Amino acid sequence: MDVLDIARWQFGITTVYHFLMVPLTIGLGILVAVMHTMWVRTDKPEWLRMTRFWGRVYLINFVLGVATGLVQEFQFGLAWSEYSRFVGDVFGSLLALEALLAFFLESTFLGLWIFGWGRIPKKVHLATLWAAVIGSIVSAYFIIAANSWMQHPVGVVTDDATGRPVQVDFFAVLSNNTALAAFSHTIVAALMVAGAALVGIGLWHLRKRKLAGAPTTDPDHHVWRRSVRLGGYVSVAAFLLTAVTGDYQAKLMYEQQPLKMSSAEALCTTEAPAPFSIFAFGKLGSNECDEVHSWTVPYLLSYLAHGDFSTAVPGVNELQEEYSAAYGATYPDDPSFGDKAGEPIDYTPLLAVTYWNFRLMIGMGMVSAAVGGYALWSTRKGRVPTNPIGVYGSVLAIGAPFVANASGWIFTEMGRQPFVVYPNPDVPREDQVYFFTAQAVSPGVTATEVWTSLIGLTLVYGALAVVELWLLTRFVRRGVTTSDGAPTPGHTPEGSPDDDVSGGADVTPGSASTRRDSDDDVLSFAY
Question: For the whole prediction, is pTM greater than 0.85?
Fold first, then answer.
C-alpha cells in the first residue's frame, strides 16, 4: 500500500470510530435535557432519577468523544498538509468557531451542570444543561458545514497566484444547502441512536426486575418504563424524519454528485424511468458495472431522484465519460500527484462500498424503528415484556442505529472519490473549485511513518473502547441505585448542597445512606 491508501485508512478508521460517540452524545444530550426539564416542571422523582442515570451515560460518552475527536484535526497537518493548505481559507473560520465558540460553550456549561446540583437554582441549573446541549449541536453544525463545503464548494473564488480557493462569502458557506440537508439528517439520526439506547437498556432492566419479583409501584419501575416509552416514540419518530430528510438529501446528491448516487444503485446505463435496486450481485467488488445484475422495483429510482416516475437517471458508464471529458482521463503528470501522476482516473467510486453501505444505512434504520415499535407495543397498558428474544434482541439492536450512522458517513465520504473537494456543478467549468485526493497527502510523509501512526492510533482507540464499554456496562448494570445521588423532590431544599451528577448518597430523610459515597461512583472527572 502506498502513502495515500494508508493515510486514507487512518483517517477513515479514526473518523468512523469518533463518529460512534458523536450521535449518542448529541441525541442523548437532547433527551437528558428533556428529562431534566420534565423534572423541573413536574417535580416527579422518576424524571429526576432518569436524568441522573442517563446523564451518567451521556457524560461517559462525551469525554470519550472529546478524546477521540482531538486526533481528527491533528491529522490535517500530519498526513494531509496539502489538503489543509487548499481548504485552509475556508476551514480556518469554521474550525475556529467550532473550537472557540461552540466547544467553549459546551464544556463550560456542562461543567456547571455537573457541579451545580443543589448549588444553583433549579431553573438556572437546567439552563446550563440546555446551553451545553445547544453547544454540541452548534459544534456539529460547524463541522458539517466544513464537510459539506468539500461536497459542494460555495462562497469562494480561486486565487490566480496559488490556485487555491479564497473565501468571499462566509454566509454562503454556512447556508450551503448541502450543509442544511446533512445537518437535519444527522440530528434526527442521532436521536434514533439515543432512542435505541433507552429502549434496549430500559427493557433489560424491566425484565430483570419482573423476574426478580420487584413491585411495579416503586420509583425504579417508573424510571425504566418511562425510559422505554420515551425511547420507543423517539426511535419511531426519528426514523420517519430520517426518511424525509434522507429523501431530500438524496435528491440534492443527484443534482450535485450524480455519480455517487448512481453508484449507490449500481445503475450502469441511463434509464428512463429508472428502477430502484433491491439486491445486486455480480462484480461489484471489481467495479465492473456491466457485470452487475440487480433485483429491482420499477420506476422507484426516478421518483427518489427527481420526485416523479418518468425522468431519466444517468448511469455510471455515461457519467464516467462525462467526468473524464470535463476533468481529464488521466491524472496530471505533476509531482504533487505522487505515484498517481499520469495514471488513468476512475471517477466511479467503489461500487461495493457505496451500494452496500447505502442499504446498510437504510436497513439498520428500519431495524431501529421496528424495535422502537415493539417496545411501545410490549409495554402498553402497564405490561412488562419478559420474552428473552424480544428483550435481548432489543439490547442487541442498540447497535443498529450506530451502524446506520457509520454506514451513512462511509457512503458519503467514499462516494465522492477521487475528489477530496468535489466540483460544484452549479458554476461554469472554468470557475469550479475541486481537489483530487491523490494530491492532498503530505509530500514529506513516508509509508512507514503513516503505518506507525495508524497502528499506534488503532491500539490507543482499542484501549479507549475497552474503557468506555467497561464504564458503560458497569453503570448500566447497576441501574438506578441508592447511591445515584437522586434527591426526592420536596425533601431537598432548592439551593441546598447536593452531590455531583454522578455520585453521592440518597439524601432522603431517614435514609441510612446520608453520607457522600464519593469514592464509589464519581464521574466529575468527565469534566
Answer: yes
